[in-house]
Design goal:
The protein is an alpha+beta fold. Helix content is 44%, strand content 10%. The protein has helices at 7-19, 69-81, 83-89, 118-126, 132-148, 156-165, 167-178, 186-197, 203-214, 232-242, 248-254, 291-304; strands at residues 43-48, 53-57, 63-64, 200-201, 259-261, 266-271, 275-280. The strands form two sheets. The chain has a five-stranded antiparallel beta sheet. A two-stranded antiparallel ribbon has the order 3-4. It binds 6-diazenyl-5-OXO-L-norleucine. 6-diazenyl-5-OXO-L-norleucine (DON) binds at residues 66-67, 99-100, 118, 162, 169, 197, 261-263, 288-289.
């Protein structure tokens, strides 16, 4: 735990009090299990690259990671296959469309635009190596363990909820199979994608994961390397341009640091060589990002001049 007198800690305490009363936003309901969470949950955590932790709210509260997983699985695919092979299957262009859009899949290159939207993430996940579904899942969980620094597991209810209702994702996967962007193991790739989205994390875990990216791929709490350092640039570039979906431009303009949101209400942001930031608060705006999370990141960036430019 960080020094209570540290400016980060006192600012986090003030942000918590400032935004706790906010009632804007709505819970994600298209995944039925996500509509059951408490909208009042709120936590903020900052982890520095030298391993100091500052947090406020219930940083132990577990939730599913959802789209924030896309960042780390993209890194894993790069580490397994290299840039050229991954780029052949998933582009690096922002879409300007919602995260679950499939319109552009049927246009131009037939390749999903980037690994942060659902189509691109399913394509990335389909690249994960392993003999059979269990080995692929175990290798993915191992990758997450390096970032988080403790054992991790999948929430079965959320996984089943997504698996039985994720028809848009299934449609995307079939379209990508049609264009040869993913192989014939369509259901296996989708299961692994739903499993990665159902990984249980807390706000502190997310901040440690973000700090690992800030620290060139080494977990600052354990000293464990989670990703080769030369792929950090790839991961942070697509986070910066595509991580906030059709809000990415405004985010880059206002906040100015790579970030990724998820529909369970998490947001991570990375200040290279300095800190990882995470916020958890389930009510979402129209783009699928946490309302309190956006405000907290904006305020933090302004106060500590975190904008990259
Ligand atoms: O596939 C989905 O729709 C969800 N499992 C993840 C989407 C998500 O988190 C988008 N984030 N804002």
């Amino acid at each position: 735990m960080g020094d209570l007198e540290h400016p980060f800690q006192s600012f986090l305490n003030a942000l918590y009090l400032k935004y706790k009363p906010l009632t804007d936003g709505a819970l994600a309901s298209y995944i039925p299990e996500l509509a059951k969470v408490d909208p009042d949950c709120f936590s903020i955590c900052v982890v520095t690259v030298d391993g100091r932790i500052f947090e406020v709210g219930d940083a132990d509260q577990l939730f599913t990671i959802q789209s924030i997983s896309k960042v780390f699985v993209y890194g894993m695919a790069l580490a397994e296959h290299g840039r050229d092979k991954v780029l052949a299957k998933v582009g690096v262009e922002p879409t300007g469309d919602p995260f679950n859009s499939l319109i552009r899949l049927d246009e131009s290159s037939k390749r999903p635009d980037n690994p942060m939207v659902n189509a691109g993430a399913i394509a990335t996940t389909s690249l994960i190596k392993g003999t059979g579904a269990t080995e692929r899942l175990n290798r993915m969980l191992d990758m997450f363990r390096h970032y988080i620094g403790r054992d991790v597991y999948i929430d079965m209810s959320v996984f089943m909820s997504e698996r039985s209702t994720g028809h848009r994702n299934r449609a995307m996967a079939h379209l990508m199979r049609h264009f040869g962007m993913i192989d014939e193991k369509i259901d296996e790739a989708l299961d692994l994608y739903f499993q990665q989205c159902s990984l249980m994390v807390n706000c502190r875990d997310l901040a440690v994961m973000a700090a690992t990216l800030a620290n060139k791929g080494v977990n600052p709490m354990t000293g464990d390397r989670a990703i080769p350092s030369h792929y950090i640039r790839d991961v942070l570039s697509v986070m910066y341009t595509c991580g906030m979906y059709n809000f990415a431009g405004e985010w880059a303009y206002k906040v100015g640091i790579p970030a990724k949101s998820g529909v369970s209400g998490g947001i991570i942001a990375v200040v290279p060589n300095q800190v990882g930031i995470a916020v958890f608060s389930p009510p979402l705006d129209a783009h699928g990002s946490s309302v309190r999370g956006l405000k907290v990141c904006e305020d933090l960036a302004r106060e500590f001049e975190l904008h990259m430019f």
